[in-house]
């Protein structure tokens, strides 16, 4: 049975259970069970390859002890074990046992067992046992399925809160070009899309020896506020060969005062798609006295500017509203351009984030340390013959190949303007009141007739509608009189 078919059959089993309600609960249920299977497979491999390695999970709670036997406990006995023994003890694991123990505890801190049928749970467990996560091919196949599950999660939150299209994350990583040893931070990591893309990029380009891999993993940092995406992110890290994903913290990055982030916490790279359109809880704005707002995207941008080292670089997804917004947004954009070189803005069409949101988004690329002189804009267009991106026809990395080719090498030399490209000076942006929503000056404007002609055409159309209405009225009156 293929991994795709297997995952579908597991989801079909869950749909029969009266306790699991909706996609979000199904994903959460699937995730904690796969998490325990994945970490147990990884533990068994580490026990063979590392001297004196001990699993962070007590022996009687390990997957192999209670779930691996297809004829093992089932029914009420299984439910009682999961609800009364497994969950309480994993939620209270002593974190002094090491970083992997802390990862397990953090994952189960807000996890729940939604299933009410022990028989259906045993069926589900037996299906999960068909996947060997120490088999590289199966792990890779499941990684693809896992990303598809995330993509299919219809109630993923506002503006793609959990899911950024892989093509967008891959393009941003490609242009930032992270290297092992550079501290890379995603302050709103969701399910870990930027982290996995960054690891894939570094493994393809730079990781040649085990010490390179260790250096890369030791340089990753991430925070996620919500329980479900945090659990998904940690599982995603395990699937991608990370032994200790304790760098993925379950926390709210914005809960700390901005000034409390010290120099030794600065990072080389920020790659993120902060939630936008949302508001933070009361009191959070007090952590940002210069930019007092509860709008999440604005607060994250202020934090990112603070966190970058001199020479540090960032790629951030922001909505159109952040570009043209006034008030606090104006002050924030002025601060960005004074502290950083905002060198490139890639403008994306509204359909890129469908079905989660239909909103204009932008990729902002900037470097800390020198003020902005010029901003280059690239207008990405939907491929010819396609009206918009969709679930069935999403944006692909090759759709952005023309932008990557134009980008330029070191120092982004050799850039030229064209039909999709224009340059605006910092002085022009300042004169516009720091409105970064600059339209493409090369776009062919639609030709409109003289306003008097348009008004005459409108009057004629309205008269025609009125005449048809009178005809219908006459017909109905005549029919009723008969």
How is this structure best described in words?
This protein is of the alpha/beta class and 482 residues long. It folds into three domains: 3-133, N6 adenine-specific DNA methyltransferase, N-terminal domain (Ferritin); 166-431, Rossmann fold (3-Layer(aba) Sandwich); 449-482. Helices cover 46% and strands 12% of the residues. It is built from 17 helices and nine strands. Strands 3-2-1-4-5-7-6-8-9 form a nine-stranded mixed β-sheet. Helix 11 links the parallel strand 2 (220-224) and strand 3 (248-250). Helix 4 packs across helix 6 and helix 8 (166-176) crosses helix 9. It is globular. The chain starts with a helix and ends with a helix. The model is unreliable at 154-160 (pLDDT under 50). One of its GO terms (molecular function) is DNA binding.
């Amino acid at each position: 049975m293929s991994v795709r078919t297997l995952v579908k059959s597991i989801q079909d089993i869950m749909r029969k259970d009266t306790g699991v309600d909706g996609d979000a609960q199904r994903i959460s249920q699937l995730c904690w069970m796969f998490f325990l299977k994945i970490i147990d497979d990884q533990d068994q491999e580490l026990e063979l390859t590392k001297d004196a390695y001990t699993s962070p999970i007590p022996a009687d709670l390990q997957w192999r002890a209670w779930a691996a036997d297809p004829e093992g406990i089932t029914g009420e006995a299984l439910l009682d074990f999961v609800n009364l023994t497994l969950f309480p003890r994993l939620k209270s694991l002593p974190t002094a046992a090491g970083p992997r123990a802390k990862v397990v505890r953090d994952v189960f801190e807000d996890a729940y067992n939604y299933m009410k049928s022990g028989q259906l749970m045993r069926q589900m467990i037996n299906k999960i046992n068909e996947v060997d996560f120490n088999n590289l091919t199966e792990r890779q196949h499941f990684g693809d399925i896992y990303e598809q599950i995330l993509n299919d999660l219809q109630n993923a939150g506002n503006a793609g809160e959990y899911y950024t299209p892989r093509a967008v994350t891959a393009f941003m990583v490609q242009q930032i070009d992270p290297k092992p040893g550079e501290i890379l931070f995603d302050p709103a990591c969701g399910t870990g899309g930027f982290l996995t893309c960054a690891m894939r990029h570094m493994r393809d380009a730079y990781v040649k020896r085990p010490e390179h891999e260790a250096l890369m993993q030791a340089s990753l940092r991430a925070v996620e506020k919500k329980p479900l995406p945090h659990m998904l992110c940690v599982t995603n890290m395990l699937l991608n060969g990370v032994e200790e994903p304790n760098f993925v913290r379950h926390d709210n990055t914005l809960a700390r005062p901005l000034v409390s982030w010290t120099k030794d916490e600065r990072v080389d790279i920020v790659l993120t798609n902060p939630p936008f359109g949302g508001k933070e809880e009361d009191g959070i704005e007090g952590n940002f006295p210069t930019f007092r707002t509860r709008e999440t995207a604005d607060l994250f941008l202020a934090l990112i500017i603070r966190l970058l080292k001199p020479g540090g670089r960032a790629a951030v997804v922001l909505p159109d509203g952040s570009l043209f917004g006034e008030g606090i947004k104006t002050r924030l954009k002025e601060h960005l351009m004074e502290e950083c070189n905002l060198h490139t803005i890639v403008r994306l069409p509204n359909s890129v984030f469908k079905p989660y949101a239909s909103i204009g988004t932008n990729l902002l690329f900037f470097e800390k340390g020198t003020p902005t002189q010029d901003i280059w804009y690239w207008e990405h267009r939907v491929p010819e013959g396609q009206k918009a991106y969709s679930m069935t026809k999403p944006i692909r990395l090759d759709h952005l190949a023309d932008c990557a080719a134009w980008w330029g090498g070191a120092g982004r030399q050799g850039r030229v303007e064209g039909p999709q490209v224009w340059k605006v000076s910092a002085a022009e942006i300042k004169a516009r009141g720091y409105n970064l929503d600059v339209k493409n000056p090369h776009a062919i404007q639609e030709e409109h007739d003289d306003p008097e002609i348009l008004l005459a055409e409108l009057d004629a159309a309205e008269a025609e509608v009125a005449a048809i209405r009178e005809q219908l009225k006459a017909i109905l009156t005549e029919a009723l009189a008969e």
